[in-house]
Amino acid sequence: MATLSRRQMVRGVDLGFATITIVLACFGLAALYGFSLNQTGEDTTLLIRQVIAFIISLAVAVVLIRADYRWLAGVHWVLYGLGMVALVAVLFFGRTINGTTGWFSFGGLQLQPVELVKVIMAIWLAKYLSDHVHELHRWSILARSGLGILGPVLLIMWQPDLGSALILIGSWIALMVVLPVPRRFLAVLLLGAIVIGLIGWFGFLQPYQKDRIQNFLNPTQDRLGTGYNVQQAITAIGSGQFFGRGLALGTQSQLNYLPARQTDFIFAAVGEELGFLGASVILILFGLFFWRLARLLRSCRDNFSLILGTALALMFFWQVLINIGMNMGLFPVAGIPLPFISYGGSSLLASFIAVGLLESMAVRQRTAPL
After folding, report:
1. How far is CA 203 from each of CA 17, 68, 206, rounded to the nearest angstrom?
2. What DSSP assignment string belongs to 112-171?
3. How far apart, in Å, are the Cα atoms of 275 and each of 87, 246, 258?
């Protein structure tokens, strides 16, 4: 594993990209601080946990920047195996929260392995597809990549965690679109997705998951029942108007009308307290985030780096799109965190691991020949 000196790392790192991620994380910390102000006894437990997770995640990212990300290509099957073991183990020894068995509990700490598996699958796909980049016209090669994704997806669905499963499936399908894959394969893929969707609807989707989809198609169907979360999120965003009600002054979020305000619906809470202005700043920051990512991808000089960067970018893209979309009633509720902002140490850690890999990539594309 090749490491860089501090001078090389500072010279090659994308400071703009790093700054954007830190500012986004600070938005999340500010929101959690606001939530703690109006609670009885000013409970800052969640804020303190997230600050600790932020410090650890930032330190891990710095370590990854100094390390050569390309060594991961040689252990991609090891990482895949560890990810599968973790997904199996959590089903038997994990903690169940809101009907999903997806967390390991270590004293007061919790780890959600599926968040790390998202990054692992990006690495595995990058190595597999880069090794066969000149054989992507062969159906067997494409089918094997799909089977590689299918294993984790089935285990994740068993938890059940439909949102995370959709992130993996969506990222794989998007990779098939951007890579030189035969159009006929994409047509078959689309047909297969429709068939699987129908099987899922009548076979393995849970009743609450069907309710979320039905409420998305008909938002007024059950405003006080299964559609309550989305209605409260839309109300919170609208009540913030332009400048917002002020930090810790949002009625929907502070009086607990808005469910999961610190996780799934934190964008709605920010929209209420900081208004259209604060929500727009978040959207602009994510726009700059993806712009810097696109610049990085254009500088990649080998297939592994290009596919890894693209897979990680897609992972972020789907999470941002679906989370903000469901906060605004544009997508069904899927239990997907908003990267860097939502409360959750596992999501924050996985996001900064991805940032560390991307920055490691940026440093080596700029400072060292391949």
Report:
1. 43, 44, 9
2. -HHHHHHHHHHHHHHHHHHHTGGGTT-HHHHHHHHHHHHHHHHHHHHTT-HHHHHHHHHH
3. 39, 8, 16
Cα Rg of the chain, angstroms? 21
Q: Is 96 exposed, middle or buried (0-12, 13-18, 19+ CB in 10 A)?
A: exposed
Convert the pLDDT of each residue in 240-252 to its tens digit. Answer: 788 888 877 777 7
pTM: 0.90
Cα 26 to chain centroid distance, Å, stands at 17
Extract the tokens encoding 297: 């991808």
SS3 state of residue 257: coil
> Which is nearest to 157 in space by CA: 278, 334, 342, 343?
334
Burial class (CB in 10 A: 0-12, 13-18, 19+), 276: middle
Q: List pLDDT tens digits, range 309-339.
A: 999 999 999 999 999 998 988 888 788 999 9
Backbone angles phi, psi at 159, to 5 degrees: -60, -45
**Rounded to an integer, what distance in angstroms lies between the CA atom of residue 191 and that of residue 174?**
15
Cα distances (Å, whole numbers) of residue 15 to 63, 66, 236, 268: 16, 14, 34, 29
Q: Is 332 left (phi over 0), alpha (psi -120 to 50) or beta?
A: beta
